[in-house]
Amino acid sequence: MPRITPWLWFDMNAEEAANFYLGIFPNSKIGEITRYTEESTGGDIPVPPGTPMTVEFFLDGQVFYGLNGGPQFRFSEAVSFQIDCADQEEADHYWYALTADGGEESACGWLKDKYGLSWQVVPKRLNELLADPDPEVAKRVTAAMMKMRRIDVSALEAAARG
Questions:
Q1: CA 129, CA 97: separation in Å to the nearest integer?
Q2: Range in 46-50, 83-87, 113-117, 152-156 the model is least confident about
Q3: Does residue 41 have a pLDDT over 70?
Q4: Architecture category of domain 7-68 in CATH
Q5: Residue 38 burial (CB < 10 Å; 0-12/13-18/19+)?
Q6: Topology of the domain covering 80-161
Q7: What is the pTM of this model?
Q8: What are the structural domain ranges in the chain?
Q9: With bands split at pLDDT 50, 70 and 90, how would you rate the model's confidence at 40?
């Protein structure tokens, strides 16, 4: 199967966003940056030649591209990126880093970062508890999760115990 690469449309701050994400995710780097030329800056995108047009970046090995396309399109919750975290400490790292400087908490481990991109921060233990063979445990864990913004594993485990 060919590789699927996410492309993200930014309002002229793709390089800034890429650097923000690089500061959060390990083993990350900027790749190629293409720039607007005299020929590509006309029409709906009046930007100076030399302005970054696309920014390739890698977050822990996963390639992403940011396009500086202007304000025409915005991110929505219809698309999100899930971060599967080993434990509460790792989940908290991503949660607090991605909600910093203007990010917004949502429900059940979802958030929007300061660029409006939606993320799901999911500790591994959440899925384990939701998959418990006892349907009453899963029901209690689900009810507890539905009241949370940031996932709190200790509260979920308490709910599982009843």
A1: 25
A2: 46-50
A3: no
A4: 2-Layer Sandwich (3.30)
A5: exposed
A6: 2,3-Dihydroxybiphenyl 1,2-Dioxygenase; domain 1 (3.10.180)
A7: 0.92
A8: 7-68, 80-161
A9: confident
